[in-house]
Amino acid sequence: MARATLDVRKQKLKKEYDKQASLYDVCLEKHLSIKNRAPLSSEWVRGMEAEDKNFIRLANPKSGEVALDMACGTGRVFLKLVEKRCIVHGIDISEKMLSILKRKIAERRISNSGEIAIGSIEKTGYNARYFDLVTCMGAMDYYPLSFARKVLSEAKRVLKPEGRVVIDFPLLGGELFEEFKKGEEKDGIRVYAYPQEKIEKAIQKSGLKIKKIVRAGMEFQFLLKKR
Ligand SMILES: C[S@@+](CC[C@H](N)C(=O)[O-])C[C@H]1O[C@@H](n2cnc3c(N)ncnc32)[C@H](O)[C@@H]1O
């Protein structure tokens, strides 16, 4: 994807998530569709619960580890890592999503949060080999694999030699994904899904090694390591 097209896409997503930010947590907690506030089907609820549970299980966060949650939003993964006593940094393109996360950090007097940065995940600005764990949930749905490769390379760069990455990609052709796609496309947001082999190839090209793949909800969740 040409740089100018990618910049337009990022700006569109920033605008969309700035707009959704005040509804995001309420909809997540009450199992409502963010698009029209209608109750989600039991398949959706089960799917989202499975995504949450399996993602954290794969990440296996340990007390004292330094983690980066890419596309952290309002903290769905970030806050779980905090609970496990990691020192957690977050980066997201939406200022409004981040301001909700910052409010939670202040209200809950969370002392083990690191920096919360506004930025794009393919270029985080962190030093090389800084993190034990890099997570990225719910962002790859919005980008072509060429961008995913950049994100994976960045994750590898900032990861310590024994560190791990947990990242999800949507399941091509899954019922939940097709429903999600329809909703996003109604709002003019393009979403992307690829066959498993193509995702695996992109991961291999980044130099990261696949250690485990789990299917949960509408996503493939990958546990990756440097070696
Ligand atoms: C579906 S939400 C997921 C948020 C959070 N990880 C979660 O699971 O609730 C997608 C998030 O990706 C963020 N995002 C999209 N493109 C991004 C980019 N290029 N860099 C950083 N964040 C991005 C959006 O702002 C939004 O917060």
Summarize the structure.
The chain has helices spanning about 5-30, 40-60, 80-85, 95-105, 145-160, 175-185, 195-205; strands at about 65-70, 85-90, 115-120, 130-135, 160-170, 210-215, 220-225.
Q: How would you describe the overall organization of this protein?
A:
The structure is a single chain. With 227 residues, the chain is of the alpha/beta class. Helices cover 45% and strands 22% of the residues. The chain has helices at residues 3-30, 42-59, 78-83, 95-107, 145-158, 175-186, 196-206, and strands at residues 66-70, 87-92, 113-118, 131-136, 159-170, 209-216, 219-225. Helix 1 crosses helix 4 (95-107) and helix 5 (145-158) crosses helix 7. The structure holds S-adenosylmethionine.
The fraction of residues assigned to DSSP E strands is 15-25%
Q: Specify the CATH architecture.
A: 3-Layer(aba) Sandwich
List low-confidence stretches: none
**CATH fold category name:** Rossmann fold
How much helical structure, as a percent, in the residues? Answer: 40-55%
Are any ligands bound, and if so which? S-adenosylmethionine
Task: Decide which structural class fits the backbone.
Answer: alpha/beta
Superfamily (CATH H level) name: Vaccinia Virus protein VP39
